[in-house]
Amino acid sequence: MLCGILYVLHTDIQWEYLPKELGFGSGMTCWRRLRDWNEAGVWQRLHEVLLAELNAERKLDWSCCVVDSSHVRALKGGATRARRRSTGAGPVPNTT
Fold this sequence. Notes:
The protein is an all-alpha fold. The chain has helices at about 1-10, 25-40, 40-55.
């Protein structure tokens, strides 16, 4: 299954066109497994384990890393947003 998933992601073919001759199984089965593993957090855990192992072997150059704030969890939560003030005099009726 993993090879089928990687093949589809690498070649950018549609799941239903995964060649059965390659022995990866059904494209739809691979897709369902990818979905299930994603929901179970398998990919996140795999990423964490690989980073930990590479870091332990000093094979990561942290001077070249970039931290994307959209992927860093704010443990204490963000600041509460102030309520937005309306610029209109009152509610506008729905036009649809």
